Amino acid sequence: MNKSLAKIRFKKSGLISSVQDHGRFGFADYGVPYSGAMDQFSYNLANLLLNNDDDAAVLEMAIIGPEMIFEMPTTIVFTGAQVEIFVNGTPQPIGKLLALQHNDVVKVGRFKKGQWLYMGIKGGIQTPRYLESRSWFEGISDHKVVKNNISLPYKVFFENKEHPKSHPKLTSNWFETNTIDVYRGADWDKIPKSIIRKLSEQNFTIGNQVNRMGIQLETNLSHQIPNILTSPVYPGTVQLTPSGNIIILMRDAQVTGGYPRILQLTDQSINIVAQKTNSDVLNFKILNY
Amino acid sequence: MNISWKLIQPNLVEISWPKSISEEILHEQISLRNALIEQNQLIIYEIRMGYHVLSILFAKDINSLELDSIIKIAEKSTSRLPYQSIKKWIVPVCYDPNLAKDLNEFCRNKKIELKQLIQIHTSKEYLVHFYGFLPGFMYLGGLDERLYLPRKHKPDAAIPAGAVGIGGEQTGIYPMQSPGGWHIIGRSPLKFFNIKTNPPVVPAQGDFISFESVSISSYEKIAKDILLGKYIWENE
């Protein structure tokens, strides 16, 4: 097996493609967010299918995917959103191990369902680690998103045998549920009863801004809750802004915040809302805990 | 001091002090964190702080026995810190309208002379409560109330690294370029976040910083020294 490095070059970079891994932990004391794949479930699945280390770096993509040229042989797999994938023009399903040859062209087409697509690669993307993680984050890593002039290093693997024809059929069922499991947030006691009722009864619609810091819900829960003194927040913390907006903090969120923290998503709920797209509807199921 | 606690999720506990910004609370938080790390290294994954809150993320869901022992430790936290460990850092700042876009407007708004603004802003020692907002952003306590000014209604798209600002009742330094709603009154040549060092920041929680007014030429000299790796932060 040859372990020299080759490069993924980008004919088209896509819109917000970035290198992500499990996340950057242990630096929140210095104000550093976790970052890492938005949908950790699909991220882990990609590395599992490839038999990678569980913190191997992948390419995360959304909205408009890239078109890539692989210099040398390797194996890749796609997980997450339901997206059209083409290898040298031939459609390929997500979830299938794809053995690539010298100069193969991989094109990510239309996003049909879900927000974030992951491309795992055997051995993981070999971009540098910054503070122990390869996840890209502005101000920490050299890049924030993939641009046409950036190339991504990976380990070359010559495959001796073909991959099995059968592969797991990855569906979007797991993230199509509208019910989001949540715990009561740290500032739950400050929320008036009328808002609590709305939180557990109302449907909320995902807003149209896509970013890695947070998801805004289209709502207007007017209230008189005073702001809190700046306090810790985490991915999955749900904030209520002074103007009555609801924000679900995601992987790139700040480590502290000044808005009341009304709910806290479970780990799997964070992955589910990550895959929600503009105008999807959700409701909160408050866990008795 | 009186504390309360709350289990947010099976592996996350938040300890709260009375809602206020004080050195005493900060010292209790630091003493609690040190005690927790000493006694529970394995099950504690991460500790985060706000002004009057300390949250503990565990590596696994915790049981009531473990929770009890954590609360016992929290109740014993004291505000007595070993004083030799507290440092006072000097941060050079150039208060010049060429480097600080809101400086003149700030003075007009507050009806004070630039000289007076500099005198007030540099005469205080600011307590580093914790880091948040951006990598390397210090939440500082101790701004003189004569300099309080509500944040801008419309945040600026790009505030440069090293910008020293005032927002509401707080003063702070932008460690990297970022959007922000604070009034920029000065600029420091120092680097407040460096991924090549461990830790990536210089002042620790509980330390103090004070601002020292420098001319544009010494601002530029310090910036050059930093590029050459020759600058060492001053403390007393």
Q: What report would you give on this structure?
A:
The complex is a heterodimer of chains A (289) and B (236). By secondary structure, chain A is mostly beta strands. Chain A has two domains: 169 residues, no CATH class; 110 residues, Cyclophilin (Beta Barrel), CATH 2.40.100. Chain A contains four helices and 18 strands. In chain A, strands 1, 2, 3, 4, 5, 6, 7, 8 and 9 form a nine-stranded antiparallel sheet that branches. In chain A, strands 10-17-14-15-12-11-18 form a seven-stranded mixed β-barrel. In chain A, strands 13-16 form a two-stranded antiparallel sheet. In chain A, strand 14 and strand 15 form a beta hairpin. The termini of chain A are far apart. Chain B has 236 residues and is of the alpha+beta class. Chain B has two domains: 81 residues, Gyrase A, domain 2, CATH 3.30.1360; 150 residues, Beta Barrel (Cyclophilin). Chain B is built from five helices and 14 strands. In chain B, strand 9 and strand 10 form a beta hairpin. Chain B is elongated and about 60 Å long. Chain B starts with a strand and ends with a strand.
Give a short overview.
The complex is a heterodimer of chains A (289) and B (236). Chain A is mainly beta and 289 residues long.
